């Protein structure tokens, strides 16, 4: 990390789940832009290393070691920002965990743990930040991290899909509620080589290349929009800046060489039946009216080029 650009000088940011991976990349980018940063992780050593990575480059950072989800942690994060740096301007809600399994094997704890960290944790942190922003009266930036799974679903991720879809729904609501306070609220949908994708065979070659410090091939960076955490950090830094003051309630995808704007759900077809629809009329007409407009689910990944196919052992 090299501290060169200073578009966020004087700003203070909280980044949850920022000890490593995407969260650390976001925190480092905000610091590079001049912001003072509150790091958050559940591991003291990892949090300390993250703080050191910023401080040794001339930035300012402190850590709050606590699991995201509870109101107490959210209050602690905001209080630490104010105590250490005097204010709060930016919140990035990134903390997350996975408990993947198919629905008939998913336990209550599997479901509740993911919902608590991702969905409730986003809510509690945003609520505390919104209170602080409104008290300060100078606006603010809220950036919530979503996922392609929340947009399209994914096999074995009932809990994660529900949480990430819920986050986007909250972002749209908060963008309306906080508009008069000059607080923008947006979601970022990242795609990057992280610990969460290390176990996916499709991405193994790309993750291995990134771990070796090699540049990922154009197929990954362009076709898949798949790169490093640092590739996504620029979008977060931009949305946190004054340059993004007019952007709110949006879902921005980022990964590799690609940036995308996701649409909001929209009606794709409408039909009317005088007197209302019955089981009989729907049985007769549904296919002809809507059959060619039914929506797909999940992500359809392209086939790997021959040179990137794993070698059989």
From TrEMBL:
The name of this protein is: SDR family oxidoreductase
What are the recorded GO MF terms, alphabetically? oxidoreductase activity
Ranges for domain Ketoreductase come to: 11-199
Gene3D superfamilies to which the protein is assigned, alphabetical: NAD(P)-binding Rossmann-like Domain
Describe the family membership recorded for this protein in Swiss-Prot or TrEMBL: Belongs to the short-chain dehydrogenases/reductases (SDR) family.
Question: What organism does the record attribute this protein to?
Answer: Cryobacterium luteum
Oxidoreductase is among the record's keywords: yes
Name the InterPro entries for this protein.
KR_dom, NAD(P)-bd_dom_sf, Peroxisomal_Beta-Oxidation, Sc_DH/Rdtase_CS, SDR_fam
- A single Pfam family it belongs to is adh_short_C2
Q: Which domain of life is it from?
A: Bacteria
Q: Which UniProt keywords apply?
A: Oxidoreductase
């Amino acid at each position: 990390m090299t501290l060169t650009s200073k578009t966020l000088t004087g700003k203070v940011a909280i980044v949850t789940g920022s000890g490593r991976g995407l969260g650390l990349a976001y925190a480092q980018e905000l610091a590079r832009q001049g912001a003072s940063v509150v790091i958050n992780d559940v591991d003291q050593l990892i949090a300390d290393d993250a703080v050191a990575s910023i401080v040794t480059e001339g930035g300012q950072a402190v850590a709050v070691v606590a699991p995201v989800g509870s109101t107490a942690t959210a209050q602690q994060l905001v209080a630490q920002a104010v105590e250490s740096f005097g204010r709060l301007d930016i919140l990035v809600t990134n903390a997350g965990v996975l408990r993947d399994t198919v629905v008939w094997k998913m336990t209550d704890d599997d479901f509740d743990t993911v919902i608590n960290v991702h969905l409730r944790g986003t809510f509690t942190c945003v609520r505390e930040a919104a209170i602080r922003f409104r008290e300060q009266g100078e606006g603010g930036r809220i950036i919530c991290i979503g996922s392609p799974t929340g947009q399209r679903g994914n096999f074995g991720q009932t809990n994660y899909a529900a949480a990430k879809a819920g986050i986007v729904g909250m972002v749209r609501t908060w963008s309306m509620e906080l508009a008069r306070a000059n607080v923008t609220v947006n979601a970022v949908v990242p795609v990057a080589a992280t610990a969460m994708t290390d176990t996916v065979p499709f991405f193994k070659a790309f993750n291995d290349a990134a771990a070796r410090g090699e540049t990922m091939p154009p197929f990954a960076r362009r076709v898949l929009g798949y790169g490093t955490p640092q590739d996504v950090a620029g979008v977060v830094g931009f949305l946190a800046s004054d340059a993004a003051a007019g952007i709110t309630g949006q879902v921005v995808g980022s990964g590799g060489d690609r940036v995308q704007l996701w649409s909001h759900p929209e009606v794709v077809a409408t039909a009317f039946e005088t007197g209302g629809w019955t089981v009989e009329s729907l049985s007769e007409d549904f296919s002809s009216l809507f059959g060619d407009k039914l929506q797909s689910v999940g992500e359809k990944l392209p086939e790997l080029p021959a040179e990137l196919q794993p070698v059989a052992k």
